[in-house]
Specification:
Keywords: ATP-binding, Nucleotide-binding, Transport. It is built from eleven helices and 13 strands. By secondary structure, the chain is an alpha/beta fold. The chain has two domains: about 1-210, Rossmann fold, CATH 3.40.50; about 220-275, Alpha-Beta Plaits (2-Layer Sandwich). A hairpin with a 2-residue loop joins strand 1 (about 1-10) and strand 2. The longest helix has 16 residues, at about 160-175. The two termini are about 35 Å apart. About 30% of the residues are buried.
Amino acid sequence: MIRLEHVTKEFAPGRGIFDVSFTVDPGTIFGFIGPNGSGKSTTLRHLMGLLAADGGKATIGGFDCWKQSKEVKQLVGYLPGEISLPGDMTGADMLDLMQQLHASDPARRQLLLKRFPFETKTKIRKMSKGMKQKLALVGCFMKDAPVYLLDEPTSGLDPLMQERFLEWIEQEKHAGKAILMSSHHFPEMEKSCDRAALIKAGRIIVESDIHELVRSSRKTYTIVFRTEVEAAQFAMQVGVEPKRLEVSFQTDETLSLNQVIAYLTQYDVRLIRPSADDLEQVFLHYYGEEESS
């Protein structure tokens, strides 16, 4: 449903997006992960037909995102990363306008307002960041589009609203929607996405099934020993610095877990604590490799 093929847009030497390619199928959620300025929002703006690429091609539903942007916009519910709405309108006024523009079902609007409640009579300029984000979410999903492009969708939401958002997009996924979501919030990406791509300096450095990404990262373990002498001896074997009774290290191609277990038979071990497998570890793993190469 969503397809980018070698899309490149250079704003200045080394700034922009370069050779970006991926696809998002109906009934899937694709995560787009990267630091600020890495090219996530630029990529989404190309898909919305707001920018023309220097090279490559972007399509949604088979329509060219630049040449057929009118048809593309009819298929897409878009949530920008920076919410900018008319300050003198109330939330209800804004939703009324969106409902007219997209011929949205009033019942769907009410369902979304129950899921993401806020005071609709408040003027937008008086709303908190969280209220504006809920207004934007309701307006985006009210369209009931087959494709959603979501740029940092949970920004400003409290934990309860974040969980409700994840439940909602899971429902939309099962309804056959194609969802592309950028976020810095690693736990929500791991919970919700089927596939993900990491982008840095405008280039995708890895793309994979979300669980494969997590499994492929180096695992960090912390071992607690009975004595500092034992901790120091083990730290020397695995090539790290001890912290009194504790030693933290990562397993990789050169240090397997089987090797570590063999070493540990020599010592009086009090505790073995593995780190949680999450996307933040994947992020640090891949970005660390890029910086050291």
